[in-house]
Write a structure and sequence with these properties.
single chain; about 210 residues; alpha/beta; 7-stranded mixed beta sheet; 5 helices; 7 strands
Length: about 210
């Protein structure tokens, strides 16, 4: 009886792990899409809130997302969490928002304000989000708060820049645009691979002009 009970325990425990890497990636993408849908809802409220415009500090908008995620039922949302390593490689880094569920990381959120396609600033945030703060290959959301008089033109330039960017990880699925949920939000996604572990990366821009 003892042997059978332990065998059943082992079988049940192992069944929680997907049988293949493809199944695991699909499960991670499904979970990330659920987070994406919630981020879109938050973005819609943000873009119509007169309090949050181009003069609003970046950290204040990050706080808005953090608080909204908590209100939407995410039980473990941490901002400015010491996680991974800093860009210098000497200290712990501070990810903007780390979203976990049941003790497992499900999303890394990195927010940045842009009025133009500022390559140096974008590069810094990309490196932080996909390399320094993401040792586990967690689904990553790089969310830009954009103040531009011609939002569509900005998005086209930004997307072209992201296409040309020399990613420090292997690209498994190239960058592609997703359906725009409204006039104020644009989204693209890709799949990167860290040491053979594939994970989704989402780029969002929100017009706060």
């Amino acid at each position: 009886g003892f042997l059978i009970r332990n065998l059943v325990f082992l079988v049940c425990d192992c069944s929680q792990i997907p049988a293949t890497d493809e199944e695991r990636l699909n499960a991670d993408i499904s979970a990330a899409n659920a987070v994406l849908n919630d981020l879109v809802k938050i973005s819609e409220r943000l873009s119509t809130n007169a309090t949050y415009k181009k003069g609003t500090p970046e950290n204040s908008i990050n706080d808005y997302f953090r608080d909204a995620l908590l209100l939407m039922g995410y039980s473990e949302v941490k901002d400015q969490t010491r996680h991974g390593i800093s860009l210098s490689g000497k200290d712990a880094g501070e990810v903007d928002i780390l979203i976990s569920k049941d003790g497992k990381e499900i999303a890394v959120f990195e927010g940045l304000k842009l009025a133009s396609v500022d390559s140096a600033y974008i590069n810094t945030h990309l490196s932080k989000a996909i390399i320094n703060y993401n040792a586990l290959g967690t689904a990553t959301f790089i969310v830009a708060y954009v103040s531009s008089y011609d939002y569509e033109s900005f998005w086209n330039r930004y997307f072209e820049y992201l296409e040309r960017y020399q990613y420090p990880l292997q690209i498994k699925r190239t960058l592609k645009t997703m359906t725009s949920p409204n006039a104020a939000v644009r989204i693209a996604n890709m799949i990167l691979s860290r040491d053979g572990f594939d994970f989704p990366v989402f780029f969002m821009t929100i017009n706060i002009e």
